[in-house]
Specification:
Blueprint lengths: L19 E11 L2 E10 L7 E7 H11 L19 H20 L1 H4 L2 H7 L8 H15 L3 E7 L8 E8 L7 E7 L8 H10 L13 E4 L3 E7 L6 H6 L7 H5 L10 H20 L12 E3 L5 E3 L14 H4 L8 H18 L17 H11 L1 H6 L4 H5 L2 H4 L16 H38 L2 H28 L10 H15 L6 H9 L14 H15 L20
Helix pairs in contact: 9-11, 11-12, 18-20
Length: 572
């Protein structure tokens, strides 16, 4: 099982947007059921964060029942009354369950929901976040008694740790406000004191395209923001014709009918979105959370941006699993540009883009919109770099849009000390993103190299190279035997034998006598010494040759072994 991830302060430091991978390793019959061993891994870059989980078929059925609210038909293998333990059936069901998990984890909405997370990682997702959020809200109401909870709104958002409540002020019982509570996220680099200070400043932020915040509050656990409840819902509710209070999975995963917005309205709304996002970045307020659920469109076709507090609370972006794949999307401004491309795609075609990139757009896409989408969402654009917000505002699709004069003057005032802390936190958020992008890039390179090395084409090349090398070695081994002439044995010639014999004979002649003895020797009668004939005869040559060959063929092993008796020691 996975361990609960906490930082040094004891807070849960887990990124819920990190992609989870699952593979069913094997199946084993235990008692009256079959147990499947799942290997689960959180993220490519976190290859060390892997664990195993034991599941029964009934657990998969319970997960499928929870996901049935989406209206998506998932390929869960059917039940079987008899023969559940047959080896072939167990292997077939194991393969079917693996396909089922692949489909679930390939859907962004399904893979990020609490049901899937709890199924694969029970240790980190076994809490009742609605109850925990209600406790925090009750503690807040003690200091702000004018607010009352009307009803909880469970599961209307996609974030697991963010909970919503319908509230009202005590003096205005018919008014409805929306309270959103969320725990601190993994990108919280501001101190608790700075977060509380900036959350108190949020109601003073004003812009024509920013949805106002009535009250902001934060403690060491998380933060909350109170806004006026908008009955018509968000931009995605408008596209999907959904009611804002309906559960997220039910209204967005498989909507019954959708609409795409007209081109002129898309131009106006997109121009307003770019305007407010550029203003936030110019004021050094990090955002990075642009998507259709964070945009409200009023009756007069004006954009209102939501959830400006998300980055201050350290929450990761909805599209972060896509963003970590591209090293060029390495700043929060470029993150918002990439997210803007997804929003533009959804407004144009009436459905969200569920893949990181798109290289082929439907033919009904207008040419001007296609140009913008190609500069943001194609694989080439994400690989080579995206335009910034200023470049997009100069595009012909937006440059000729005339916005009405703003009735509200934009105001965002932050103390200089707090502004420096926010800027430092923004840099740290970008650094964490860049580090994860590097790790993902390195892992993908190694995986690609390993896949290339194990490919059939590469195996054939290695086998061919090995055969060629073996053939060359055999050729080299056979070449000296067939081509090179053997070295002749060295034979002793007659002249060499005579010279050798002469040297032996000469060395055998005694040395000359001393002078005194020579005188005595001359006293007697003279003796005639015949002249030495050194010319060898044929018999001498043959005998000397036999002698030389016998000497050269001498072997010690042919000698008879003898026993030595040592008598050198003195006798006592």
């Amino acid at each position: 099982m996975a361990t609960i991830e906490r930082d040094k302060s004891g807070k849960v430091n887990l990124d819920d947007t990190t992609t989870i991978y699952c593979s069913i390793e094997h199946a084993q019959s235990i008692g009256d059921h079959v147990e499947y061993t799942l290997k689960v891994q959180r993220g490519l870059a976190n290859s060390d964060k892997a664990w195993t989980s034991k599941k029964r078929y009934s657990d998969f059925v319970a997960l499928d029942t929870a996901l049935s609210i989406t209206g998506i038909t998932l390929p869960l293998p059917p039940k079987k009354v008899f023969g559940n333990f047959d080896r072939e059936f167990v292997a077939e069901r194991k393969q079917g369950l693996q396909q089922y998990m692949n489909v679930v984890l390939s859907q962004p909405f399904l893979s990020s929901c609490v049901h899937t997370k709890r199924f694969l990682d029970e240790n980190n997702y076994n809490l009742n976040w609605q109850e925990l959020a209600l406790q925090q809200v009750a503690m807040f109401f003690r200091s702000e008694p004018k607010w009352e909870v009307v009803e909880p709104l469970p599961d209307i958002g996609w974030r697991i740790r963010k909970r919503y409540f319908n509230i009202r002020p005590g003096e205005l019982p018919k008014e409805r406000y929306l309270l959103a509570w969320c725990e601190h996220g993994p990108d919280q680099f501001l101190s608790d004191k700075d977060v509380a200070a900036i959350m108190r400043l949020l109601p003073s932020f004003g812009h024509p395209y920013l949805y106002p915040i009535e009250f902001g509050y934060a403690n060491d656990t998380g933060g909350l923001a109170i806004r006026n409840f908008f009955e018509k819902g968000t931009l995605r509710d408008l596209i999907c014709k959904a009611k804002p209070k309906t559960a997220f999975l039910k209204k967005y995963c498989s909507p019954k009918s959708v609409i795409s917005l007209p081109c002129q309205l898309i131009k106006v709304l997109a121009r307003q979105i770019l305007d407010i996002v550029k203003y936030l970045h110019d004021k050094h307020v990090p955002y990075g959370h642009l998507h259709s659920c964070n945009i409200i469109v009023t009756a007069d076709n004006k954009v209102k941006l939501l959830d400006i507090e998300n980055s201050l609370l350290g929450l990761p972006s909805f599209y972060r699993p896509f963003i970590v794949e591209f090293k060029k999307i390495n700043t929060l401004e470029l993150v918002d540009v990439y997210c803007f491309g997804h929003v533009l795609f959804e407004m144009t075609f009436g459905r969200p883009l569920r893949t990181p990139t798109c290289d082929n757009f439907p033919p009904q896409c207008p040419a001007e919109i296609r140009s913008v989408l190609e500069s943001i969402l194609t694989s080439e654009a994400c690989k080579n770099g995206l335009p910034n917000i200023g470049d997009l505002l100069l595009h012909p699709l937006f440059s000729d849009v005339v916005l009405p004069a703003a009735q509200q003057k934009p105001t965002i005032k932050i103390p200089s000390k707090l502004k420096e802390a926010i800027k430092t936190a923004k840099d740290q958020i970008e650094n964490r993103l860049q580090e994860e992008q590097k790790e993902v890039h390195q892992i993908r390179r190694r995986s690609k190299a390993a896949a290339h090395h194990s490919s059939e084409e590469e195996k054939k090349k290695r086998r061919k190279s090995k055969k060629k090398s073996v053939a060359e070695d055999e050729l080299n081994d056979n070449q000296p035997k067939s081509c090179e002439s053997p070295k002749p044995e060295k034979k002793t010639t007659i002249s060499e034998a005579v010279t050798s014999e002469l040297s032996v004979t000469t060395s055998a002649i005694p040395p000359a006598l001393p002078p005194a003895m020579a005188v005595k020797a001359n006293v007697g009668p003279a003796i005639s010494t015949p002249e030495l004939d050194v010319t060898p005869t044929e018999s001498q040559t043959a005998g000397r040759g036999a002698l030389l060959s016998g000497i050269s063929g001498f072997k010690k092993t042919g000698l008879k072994k003898s026993d030595t008796i040592d008598k050198s020691q003195p006798m006592i």
